[in-house]
Structures are given as structure tokens and as C-alpha cells.
Amino acid sequence: QAPRPVPNKLACAMAKDGEAGYGSGAPPVAAPVSNEQVSNLGSGNKRIRSKYTCNPGYTPVSDCFCVRFSPDDQYLAASFANGAINIYDAETGKQEFVLNSSPPGTELSSMPLPTTQLRWRPHNAQSKTKSVLISVNAEFDGQILHWHIKSGKCLHTITEKGNQLFCLDYFSDGSQFATAGRDRIVRVYDEATKRLVQNLQGGDMKDTAGHSNRVFSLKYHPQDPHIILSGGWDNTVQIWDTRKGHSVRSLWNCYLCGDSVDFSQDGSQILTGSWRTENALQTWDFGSGQLQESVEWQSASSKSTCMLFASQFSKDPNSSMILAGGSQENEAKFFVRQPGSKAAAFGALVHMPKPVFTVDWSYSSRLAA
After folding, report:
1. Alpha helices, DSSP H only, in 165-291?
2. What DSSP string describes 146-157?
3. Which of 150, 154, 241, 315 has CA 20 to 30 A from 100's CA?
4. What whole-number distance in Å separates Cα of residue 325 and Cα of residue 310?
5. How far apart are CA 334 and CA 320, in angstroms?
6. Is the peptide bond before 5 cis (omega within 30 degrees of 0)?
């Protein structure tokens, strides 16, 4: 297996940090000085500019694994390899809250393992409590933690024995969430009771077989709570139906090593970002499972390619943009999608000192991290 490379930065609000990886024994290192820059591409009317940079200043340096805007675009949450979750004002980049942090001087060996992914609970959930987010970590008995950001309290903890957790997602109404990780099983939980509802594993043994390796990306269908996508190291994206209890279809030749599978807002298209140099960024038709487009990463000015760890559609109704980033060239790129045309790059963050491991669009699609 290719080694899982390591996250390190926050994009439009990019945090600069070192390199270690999920639970790896590699010592943290300081981020090298770089000549990173924002580059506008193409002749269209879409442009990007740098808004702010967030650096939590952790010593030793700690990698950034996940960034997510809150449903009202008020906050930007970032999770780190030392287990901490930092909450920033999404408009100014000012740090507002810190969750799960270790006191200064804590020995590396006694720090929590990385907070690998997080999601905000949708605001239309039945609960009256707002400002709640959920995180998972790479502890050997993986934990699902519900946090109230304003009080800093952990509201609830669920432990999955013997399973490192790498990904999770909420259904859009907040009624349920799903997790996945090392043991290849997708678990569905009820948000109100916090109880495990269903284990999704295997396939129909005719056309699908479920996952055979670690799962790093998970996404609910935007309208149908029964449909979940997941992808990982086994070169597949599995399409799960909770009414069947197993995988019902598969997309092949998708090597996902990060949070890089997504649905368009109308649920008709799937986006995948693979950790490879050729045909890394692809869109698929959900109905037929057919490949629609392999998005061209190279441009006239640059022949470089990027091995992707993260990719996401923008959250406007037409999913009119794509943001993706990764390693090798250590860059993130913005693409615009128009009906009848191929996706075209309109902006990039280039020459970064380390790979891009996580990306997120704000709900207004005016900001990206």
C-alpha cells in the first residue's frame, strides 16, 4: 500500500504546520519557508484572493487534518494531529474557541491521537442546542465526540472498540450520522438517541462486495437518507443503501486517501479525488455510475499534476465550482463548471510547503478553506 501522506494546511484560511500522519511515529517538523501564492487562471470572471491565514502556533507543530464551515457560515472549525479543534470567526479568522486541547508542555506520548475529521450538526436538527459539532479520532478504540463549542464541553462520547475512525458525515436534516475507518464497516447512528442503528458491510456478492481496505471518505446523499457513499484504499467508491444493509453499486478505479468523495447538491453527480498523477479528479453520473469527466488539472502555464487528498463541489444549487488539493505539487485548485462545457480552472494556491489535506466551501460558496 502507498503510505498515507500527511495533512498540514488550512487553505483560504490556511494554517501552516508540520508533518506526521495519523498516529505515525514520525517526529513533528517545522514547516519550511515557502513562496506560496494565490494565482488566478483563465479569462473568466471568477477570481480568488487570500482573505486570512490562521496559525494556532502549536509547539510542537501539529498537522491540520480537517476544516469545516458552520451551517450559518459564522465559524470555521479546524482539527489537528494533537487532537485539538480550533474554532475561528469565518469572516475575520480570529480564534474564538479551542476544544480538546492539551496543556502546554504535555508529553507527545500522552497527547490525544489525531482528530481526523469533524462535521457541524445541521441547524435544522430536532435538538434546540445550536453550535454543536461532531468529531472522530484515530485512537485505537475510535471515539465519536459531540462538542458544544461555546461552553467547550463534550456532550457525548461513543467508542468503537478496536476501530480507528477516519471519516464521518451527517444527513442533511441532522437526524442521523455515519462513521467509517480501519475496519471497513460503515456504521449509522441515530442523532437523538446516539445509538448505533445499522452496520453496513459487504455487498450482494454478485456485483458488489463492500470494502476490502480502510475507508477515508464518507458522504450522504443530499435528499435521500438511505444512500451513502464511501471510498478508500481499495480502489472503489461503494454506494450503500440502508434498506438493503449492504453495498448496492460500486465505482471502480477511485483511489481515495482523504476526504475526497462528494455529491452535487441535486444528488445527480458524484465527485472523486484520487491520490494518483493521472485522471485524479473525476465526476460521475449517480444514476448510471458512468464516468462523466476526468477534469484536466494541467494548464497552459503549468504541466504539473497533483495527487489529490481532498475534493469538493461548491454548495450553491448548481454545484457550479470544484475545489481540490493534494500532494506532489502541493497545491489547491479552483474549477468552474458550466453546462455543456468542461470544468475549467480559474484559480490556484501554489508553491505551498506541504500537501493540502482538507478543503471546504462555505455554504454561501463565497469563501473556501
Report:
1. none
2. EEETTTTEEEEE
3. 315
4. 5
5. 11
6. no
Sheet holding 176-181, edge to edge: 165-170, 176-181, 186-190, 196-200
Distance CA 40, CA 346 (A): 6
What does DSSP assign to residue 71?
Answer: T
144, 196 in Cβ contact below 8 A? no
Closest CA to 166 of 7, 18, 336, 17: 7
- What helix, strand, coil percent values describe the chain, rounded to 5? 0, 40, 60
**Which three three-digit cell numbers place residue 232?**
478508500
- Interior CA angle at 11 toward 5 and 16, to 5°? 65
Distance (Å, rounded) from C-alpha 360 to C-alpha 68?
Answer: 6
Q: What is the dihedral of CA 357, 66, 217, 156, to 10 degrees?
A: 160
Distance (Å) of CA 61 to CA 84, 108, 118, 120, 121: 12, 11, 20, 25, 29
pLDDT attached to residue 34: 58
Task: Assess contact for 80 and 95: CB atoms under 8 A.
Answer: no
Containing 229, the helix (H) or strand (E) segment is strand 227-232
DSSP annotation of 112 reads P
Q: For residue 67, give the C-alpha cell.
A: 476544516
- Which has the closest alpha carbon to 353: 6, 59, 83? 6
Let me know: does 71 contact 363? Beta carbons within 8 Å.
Answer: yes
Which pLDDT belongs to residue 17? 36
Rama region for 300: left / alpha / beta (φ>0; ψ in -120 to 50; rest): alpha
List of the chain residues with pLDDT < 50: 1-33
Among candidate residues 209, 212, 203, 248, the one with its CA nearest the CA of residue 233: 212
pLDDT confidence of residue 126: 65
The amino acid present at 85, given as its one-letter code, is I
CA torsion through residues 210, 64, 330, 314, sign? positive
Span 7-61, pLDDT tens digits = 344 444 433 333 333 333 333 334 444 578 898 888 888 999 999 999 898 887 7
Closest CA to 263 of 315, 214, 335: 315
Q: Rounded to whole angstroms, how far apart are CA atoms 178 and 188?
A: 4
**CA 237/CA 353 separation, integer angstroms:** 30
